[in-house]
Design goal:
It is a single chain. The protein has 548 residues and is of the alpha+beta class. The chain has two domains: 8-219 and 303-467, no CATH class; 473-539, SH3 type barrels (Roll), CATH 2.30.30. It has eleven helices and 31 strands. The strands form five sheets. Strands 1, 2, 3, 4, 5, 9, 13, 14, 15, 16 and 18 form an eleven-stranded mixed sheet that branches. Strands 17, 19, 20, 21, 22, 23, 24, 25, 26, 27 and 28 form an eleven-stranded antiparallel sheet that branches. A hairpin with a 5-residue loop joins strand 14 (378-385) and strand 15 (391-397). The radius of gyration is 25 Å and the shape is globular.
């Protein structure tokens, strides 16, 4: 079996690395601001964060979000569909399976694989193509499992520690619009040895026909494109990776990038991404170099339908890169991330045309999406990290060269969708999945499907955040619960897992017997604890697994 691996940290961070730090009074990188031509925000005309949020009436109170009922949400989606060419909403479900030794004590193998589907009618050909490409746990893993069993027995015989095998196939959507759907699948596996291995496989589909596209399908001048691309790739690799490259990397770029077994490629908001695998142009320690061939630079060699403004689109956003082309907005549209080395802070600025807004200062900008709706309005939905995975998600409208703050969700991020759980990750112009940091009988990431409203608000479409966790809670005192609609108690010694919460007084659980129920709680903010029937949660459980 071919050894493949994905880098979890890269996926969750959108391949963006960031540092941690704290400090006050950090000034933005003025040189970067000038280079990017950010409109000047002097002390006199710069609006404070507090004032801006107040001016734009950013209110994330649950009561306000609940004002829009399901009927309104359905009407919103219908309005978008009627006003322009609609793009398909994508669903990515991660399926997981584990194998243990006969005694159940040792994990031998973990496999996760993504199933990709179209979440609405009218895209049957595309849905069939995606299902053929990525259909979850449909492959047999007998060979890999047998290898794990043999390795486990060998390590046991010699008294060595056995590290479980794993194989992951995780799909990331980079550009979905009314013309193309482009993805990158990251493969990750460990089959013994000092480390695992990983590689990449891109796939781009015609939205209407479902055809899996070749790079040539996008080119109007193939010869000119390849000549310029080889030169561009060579120069960019040299500049960004330098001494970390193999001595013969130039020949590899020239002969193999677009050869019989071409390098992985996919489309994002700014261009054609060429993703090299480890050991192709650089050793494992260097990682997996990638270079983006910008639409603007290669426009004369590309068919216009793939580089002209989209009628509707959702696509990954890179920091400090102009994404105005596909949005069809005059002037630059950017998420600027300016890091201050002295204070260890990163200032994030939203730019659209002659307008800009300073979002705030963080330890890092993580990732986001550009959304162009069929009604012609464009938004940036992105999240940042205050420090140590303390996330916050923002929505800014950038339509017609104007920046407008729309929404802010503390504790929310896109992080968690590729964690090997059974969650479904939704991605569309009016539907997005987010993950909320939840402290309910432990610390969890809860997944939620959100509606992006006409006003740019993120509204929950469901009441309960879904939680997938390996944490087990052991009951040490008879616990008041609701089972099968009736109030009762479960005895000390029982074991349960949290499966969801409304984050407002109800936690959902599953017993090790398979029974499911709910626990009612009251939050005691002064003592930083939950109360169950008037008693601390710590009296009911052997340990409550809170982070920190």
């Amino acid at each position: 079996m071919k050894k493949k691996l994905w880098c979890t940290a890269w996926i969750l961070s959108g391949f963006i690395m960031g540092g941690c730090g704290a400090g006050q009074g950090a000034e933005p990188d003025s040189e970067l601001a000038q280079e990017l031509q950010i409109p000047d925000e002097t002390a006199e005309n710069r609006t404070s964060e507090t004032e801006r949020i107040s001016t734009n009436e950013l209110d994330n109170d649950a009561a306000n979000h609940d004002d829009m009922n399901n009927e309104a949400l359905d009407s919103e989606a219908s309005k978008q569909t009627q006003t322009g060419e609609h793009l398909p909403a994508i669903g990515i479900t991660t399926e997981k399976k584990e194998w243990y030794t006969d005694d159940g004590e040792t994990l031998l193998l973990t496999v996760t694989a993504d199933k990709v589907t179209v979440e609405e009618n009218g895209f049957d050909a595309l849905n069939a193509a995606l299902s053929a490409q990525w259909d979850g746990l449909t492959k047999g893993y007998e060979e890999l499992l047998q290898s794990a069993k043999e390795h486990y027995q060998s390590e046991k015989d010699f008294g060595y520690y056995f590290s479980n095998y794993y194989h992951h196939e995780n799909v990331v959507a980079y550009r979905i619009d009314n013309r193309v759907a482009s993805f990158c699948c990251i493969y990750d596996s460990y089959e013994g040895g000092a480390h695992g291995n990983y590689d990449f496989d891109g796939a781009t589909f015609d939205v209407k026909s479902g055809k899996k596209m070749q790079l040539e399908d996008m080119l109007s001048d193939a010869e000119g494109f390849y000549d310029k691309a080889v030169s561009y790739l060579t120069a960019e690799l040299e500049e960004n990776y330098g001494d970390g490259l193999f001595p013969e990397y130039r020949e590899v770029v020239k002969e193999d990038t677009f050869g019989e077994t071409p390098a992985c490629w996919y489309l994002d908001n700014t261009g054609i991404v060429i993703q090299y695998n480890p050991y192709s142009v650089a050793p494992y320690a260097t990682g997996a170099p990638s270079v983006t061939l910008p639409y603007d630079v290669f426009a004369e060699y590309l068919k216009e339908e793939y580089t002209s403004p989209c009628s509707s689109m959702v696509a990954r956003v890179k920091e400090n890169e102009d994404i105005s082309r596909l949005l069809g907005i005059d002037g630059k549209v950017m998420l600027v991330s300016a890091h201050d080395e002295e204070y260890g802070e990163t200032e994030v600025i939203v730019v659209s045309g002659d307008s800009s807004e300073t979002v705030g200062e963080f330890s890092r900008f993580v990732m986001g999406y550009a959304v162009k709706r069929a009604d012609g309005r464009s938004f940036l939905v992105f999240y940042c990290d205050y420090a140590s995975d303390d996330f916050v998600t923002y929505v800014y409208e950038v339509t017609d060269g104007n920046v407008r703050a729309c929404d802010k969700l503390e504790g929310a991020s896109f992080e968690g969708g590729y964690s090997g759980t059974s969650d479904k990750f939704y991605l569309g112009t009016d539907t997005l999945s987010l993950y909320m940091h939840l402290d309910v009988l432990g610390t969890y990431l809860g997944s939620m499907k959100y509606q992006l409203t006409e006003e740019g608000k993120l509204v929950q479409t469901e009441e309960v955040f879904a939680v997938d966790t390996a944490f087990e809670l052991k009951v040490v005192k008879d616990l008041p619960v609701t089972l099968a609609g009736a109030e009762t108690t479960i005895p000390a010694g029982s074991v349960l897992k949290i499966t969801g919460t409304d984050n407002a007084g109800t936690a959902y659980f599953r017993l090790d017997t398979g029974e499911t129920g709910t626990i009612s709680y009251v939050r005691d903010d002064e003592q930083w604890q939950l109360l169950i029937d008037g008693l601390s949660e710590n009296e009911y459980f052997e340990m409550v697994p809170y982070a920190g």
